[in-house]
C-alpha cells in the first residue's frame, strides 16, 4: 500500500511539473464566418456584422451584396448602421426608441456624397459638396 501511494505521488508530481504555466492562449490568425453577433448578459444581440446577399426589392429594384454592421440598443433598436457595397456605402444614426424621424445619414454613392439630417420636429437638411 505504501508503494502504491509513493507511485501515485510520483505520477502526480511528474504530471504537475509537465504542465505549461497558465497564461494567454494563442490567438487564431483569422476568424472566419458568415456572420458575427455580440450579445449582452441577457442574450440579446447588441451588435451584428453580416454579409447580406444580393436581392431584388418588391418594386423590382436590385440590391447589391452588402456588408452591414449594426449596433443595437438595449431595447432592440439598431441605432448605428454602417454599410458597404460596390455602388454605395453609408453610415446612419437613429434617434432613441420611440422616435421615428430623428436620424442622420452620411453616404457616398458613385461619385457623389451627402449628409442628411432630420429631427422629430420635421426639420430636415441635406448637405452636399
Write the layout of secondary structure elements.
Elements: H1 2-18, E1 35-39, E2 45-52, E3 55-56, E4 62-63, E5 66-72, E6 78-84, E7 88-94, E8 103-109, E9 112-118, E10 124-127
Largest sheet: 8 strands, antiparallel
- In N-to-C order, the SSE pattern is HEEEEEEEEEE
What value does the Rg take, in angstroms?
A: 27 Å
Q: How many angstroms separate the termini? A: 89 Å
Total strands: the figure is 10
Regarding quaternary structure, what we see is: single chain
Poorly predicted residue ranges? none
In what range is the share of β-strand residues?
Answer: 35-45%
Structural class: mainly beta
| Helical residues, percent | 10-25%
Q: What is the number of helices? A: 1
General shape = elongated
The strands making up the biggest β-sheet line up spatially as 1-2-5-6-7-8-9-10
Mean pLDDT, rounded to whole units? Answer: 88
Summarize the structure in short.
13% of the residues lie in helices and 43% in strands. It has 129 residues and is mainly beta. A hairpin with a 5-residue loop joins strand 9 and strand 10.
Give a structural overview:
With about 130 residues, this protein is mainly beta. It contains one helix and ten strands, in the order αββββββββββ. The protein has an eight-stranded antiparallel beta sheet, with no helix packed on it. The protein has a two-stranded antiparallel sheet with strand order 3-4. It is elongated, with a radius of gyration of 27 Å. The mean pLDDT is about 90.
Amino acid at each position: 500500500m505504501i508503494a502504491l501511494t509513493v507511485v501515485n505521488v510520483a505520477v502526480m508530481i511528474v504530471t504537475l511539473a509537465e504542465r505549461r504555466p497558465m497564461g494567454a492562449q494563442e490567438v487564431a490568425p483569422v476568424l472566419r464566418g458568415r456572420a458575427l453577433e455580440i450579445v449582452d448578459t441577457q442574450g440579446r444581440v447588441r451588435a451584428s456584422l453580416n454579409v447580406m446577399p444580393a436581392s431584388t426589392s418588391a418594386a423590382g429594384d436590385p440590391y447589391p451584396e452588402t456588408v452591414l454592421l449594426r449596433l443595437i440598443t438595449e431595447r432592440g433598436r439598431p441605432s448605428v448602421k454602417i454599410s458597404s457595397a460596390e455602388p454605395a456605402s453609408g453610415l446612419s444614426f437613429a434617434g432613441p426608441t420611440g422616435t421615428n424621424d430623428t436620424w442622420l445619414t452620411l453616404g457616398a454613392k458613385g461619385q457623389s456624397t451627402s449628409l442628411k439630417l432630420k429631427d422629430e420636429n420635421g426639420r430636415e437638411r441635406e448637405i452636399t459638396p
